[in-house]
Records
---
Amino acid sequence: MFLPTVVAFLVVVARMLYLRRAGRCTSTRSLAGMTAIVTGASAGIGMETAKDLARRGARVILACRNLTKAQAVVDHIISETGNKKVVVRLLDTSDLSSVRRFAKEILQTEDAIHILVNNAGIAGKQVREVTGDGLELTMATNHYGHFLLTNLLLKRLKESAPSRIINVSSVAHFFTWKINLKDLNFEKRSYGTLEAYAQSKLCNILFSLELADKLRGSGVTVNSLHPGTVGSEFFTRDELAVTWFRKLFLFFGNIVLRLFGKDNKLGAQTTIHLAVAEEVEGVTGKYFDECKEATASWLARDSSLAKALWEISEADVQLAPSEIFY
Ligand SMILES: NC(=O)c1ccc[n+]([C@@H]2O[C@H](COP(=O)([O-])OP(=O)(O)OC[C@H]3O[C@@H](n4cnc5c(N)ncnc54)[C@H](OP(=O)(O)O)[C@@H]3O)[C@@H](O)[C@H]2O)c1
Ligand SMILES: *[C@@H]1O[C@H](CO)[C@@H](O)[C@H](O)[C@H]1NC(C)=O
Ligand SMILES: *[C@@H]1O[C@H](CO)[C@@H](O)[C@H](O)[C@H]1NC(C)=O
């Protein structure tokens, strides 16, 4: 009886300590009259972000790949917040034609976009998968899709200034210490599950850096962040559990995550802080953790690398001259 009691006690204390230092958005700012787009808002951090922005009165567009799943989230948000200006639109960030279709529809229907949250993301693809556009799937979902989306919506974001772009990156960007610009899609080197994820998240920060530079003085800010370790659907997805060893690892991992990690609401705080807080008005090109500015890896702070990556990405998504608004 003694040992389990001690263990349970330690678990509770460790959890309290972690959650105590977790950053929380303290801003009470209203977003009445404003429009926000959140990608990957059908689950986890994105869902909680959308709900919070809706509670503040914004028109919120959930940009999601599964309309059935996302519509249930919309219904839930409307009933929780009483805000009826919440809608879902189809977006698969891994498919460039889907991104172009989504952007076209948004530009036709929305007079203004004040907040763009690039949140959708995947990890843990065991083997290299290639999309119809010839891009590696993790990179396509986490990086290229958002790269294109952000560029296509830039005109409207500029017209709506002051406006904010928020990129959900990850502390996992520290797990890679080199980036091969000539082989972003793992065609020449061997594919690594973690390497693909880390690289995609490094790209998120580098792009925020370069775009912030391009947009200086425009009233549009761009920042990236690590949400913390969050017990969302992220670590429970089927594609992660491909071997029995992985299944076992994930089973216990998810128990630990539920005990020690943040819930979705807490995981969304830094995103929400960057989207709404008065004190980050005008702040751009920075990396945040726990609602505070933090230091990204040295690779993620290399501005010439950011510039080179930008140019390669433009070529990879075949950004047309008519699609450039920076
Ligand atoms: N959880 C963590 O500890 C953690 C840590 C660091 C960073 N992050 C980052 O936080 C972000 C959100 O993750 P989460 O923890 O909230 O995970 P999650 O619960 O798995 O949610 C991911 C969301 O992204 C959507 N999505 C995935 N691929 C998509 C695609 N191709 N097109 C459109 N939407 C797509 C999912 O849609 P469906 O519902 O249709 O699957 C879902 O709504 C990710 O960028 C992740 O890298 C998470
Ligand atoms: C979409 O979401 C629904 C409801 O959560 C789920 O039953 C269905 O399997 C999902 N579809 C795809 C293609 O993932
Ligand atoms: C982050 O921001 C940049 C610049 O807007 C964009 O090109 C990049 O792909 C984004 N990544 C994500 C996942 O938000």
---
Amino acid sequence: MTISTHRRGWLQAGLASAAALVLGACDRITNNPKGIGFLASAEGLTRRVQRLVIDRKALAREFKPADISPDFRPNGSIDPTDPDYVALRDKGFADYRLVVDGLVERPLSLSLAELRALPSRTQITRHDCVEGWSSIGKWTGARLGSLLDQAGLKKNARYIVFHCGDTLEQTLDGSGQYYESIDLIDAYHPQTILAYAMNDGALPVAHGAPLRLRVERQLGYKHAKYVMRVEAVADYAHLGRGKGGFWEDRGYEWYAGI
Ligand SMILES: Nc1nc2c(c(=O)[nH]1)N[C@H]1C(S)=C(S)[C@@H](COP(=O)(O)O)O[C@H]1N2
Ligand SMILES: [Mo]
């Protein structure tokens, strides 16, 4: 598994949607002898790639307080029984530390108070689960980009991995522990936060207490709950079953952009 495979993956996805966009102009292009040539030219390719990259930086839609779902649906792990997690929870997460390590200049270990002191963001967004339901919630958390800048990413860092405190599937080799990974475009997206509050209260256990990822341009399974450790890596092939996340290891797409 290489970076270029993933790059190619999302580039191809982008080119496919760029191609769909120009379908409307198809008649004009095919009637124009230069049309097809232009689409295949390096200049045309560069423009479409630029549009794709700009699109990935666009903000997800934000909603009004009145839009907040009264019963935001919890999904997947909702009450982890892993002994380490239970011990933290039973002390109200007083001993919780978020570890930031891997390809960083300054590894960090931060308490919730220290996380709350980081530059934060509050947003009301819609969560879309791949199973076909959506809920709208208000989230407050530390901006992941600020956290990563504080740790200082090394040049060869390409992905950010979130190691979670819950085991979703019991396996002999430990590959049932939830984890996720995102690229640096999503990591530095302004709406990407490590949320410690939901709907103006402390983040409930069912929704990932004490800390969960909000990565608003991605489907629900990318939003890692119960985040214990943030690791910067060059590649994720050595983690879990090698596909970059718990659900990716079980067949879901690594890039789940919305
Ligand atoms: N650690 C962990 N994170 C997780 C999951 C999980 O089971 N464990 N489920 C994922 C899925 S599929 C969804 S839709 C969302 C659900 O978030 P919610 O419980 O706040 O609705 O969390 C995602 N993150
Ligand atoms: Mo989901």
